[in-house]
Amino acid sequence: xxxxxxxxxxxxxxxxxxxxxxxxxAAGGANVLITGRSKERLDAAAQRIGYPVQTRExxxxxxxxxxxxxxxxxxxxxxxxxxxxxxxGIGPLASLxxxxxxxxxxxxxxxxxxxxxxxxxxxxxxxxxxxxxxxSARAAFPGTAGLAAVNGALEAMVPPLAAELAPIRVNAxxxxxIDTPWWHGMPExxxxxxxxxxxxxxxxxxxxxxxxxxxxxxxxxxxxxxTGTVIECTGGANLAAGG
Length: 243
Ligand SMILES: NC(=O)c1ccc[n+]([C@@H]2O[C@H](COP(=O)([O-])OP(=O)(O)OC[C@H]3O[C@@H](n4cnc5c(N)ncnc54)[C@H](OP(=O)(O)O)[C@@H]3O)[C@@H](O)[C@H]2O)c1
Description:
Helix 1 (about 15-25) packs across helix 7 and helix 4 (about 100-120) runs parallel beside helix 5 (about 145-165). This protein starts with 6 loop residues before the first strand and ends in a 10-residue tail after the last strand. Strands 3-2-1-4-5-6-7 form a seven-stranded parallel beta sheet, sandwiched between helices. It has helices at about 15-25, 40-50, 65-70, 100-120, 145-165, 190-200, 210-220; strands at about 5-10, 30-35, 55, 75-80, 125-130, 170-175, 230-235. The chain is built from seven helices and seven strands; from the N terminus they run βαβαβαβαβαβααβ. About 45% of the residues are buried. The protein has one domain (about 5-180, about 210-230): Rossmann fold. With about 240 residues, the chain is α/β, with parallel strands linked by helices. The radius of gyration is 17 Å and the shape is globular. Bound molecules: NADP nicotinamide-adenine-dinucleotide phosphate (NAP). NADP nicotinamide-adenine-dinucleotide phosphate (NAP) binds near residues 15, 16, 108, 177 and 181.
């Protein structure tokens, strides 16, 4: 798909899904800007991406950073929100810490809210916005009520925002388990066993790669007849859990 000379901003582009999405857009000819909190991680990602991309340090939970960013950028064709506070607000209800759940909302839902609001003046007519939510929003995996709450809230915003912001299109990709640094807080052996279990239960027989999600993002960005939609990209791993 060609995105020749179109401007793309990827919030959370220094790792995982955002990084793969940046590479895919850049391969399609887009002018890509990636953001993240760490200059070092941004520079390393820019090297790995292998196409020229611009970088900008910013903390999406910081009002000042977000406002300054919005002021500084040129009008945008495609905005992708691929960030979260990581694996916080996760675990069984009995041990779920209220502050951790609030942090999870701050790191994802409220960060998205801040970015979307600040970016509005910079979104071109007909621009696309793509949010990366999570399949936990609509599945029934024990220990994920907190993640379901955060991502369910985000997914619930997609249809009304698509109606309200038209002709800007607003969609989300809802991934299942994707092998990215998001999981690096889990010890390696435990992670390998967890991934193997997910792969065994998934109809496609594997966990996801960041490129799987990137491909869904590019579909949503490129198809001007799709808005207000949440696409699942899970390998079917959520089907048995009511997803
Ligand atoms: N991996 C999965 O299995 C999975 C499944 C479902 C949904 N998701 C969702 O997919 C999205 C991307 O996750 P991922 O797996 O690609 O994770 P990742 O590899 O950890 O990447 C997260 C990116 O977000 C940036 N980021 C985090 N907090 C930020 C903040 N406050 N301000 C600015 N940038 C921030 C990180 O850079 P810095 O740390 O340098 O800021 C990094 O570039 C997240 O919303 C996640 O919830 C992931």
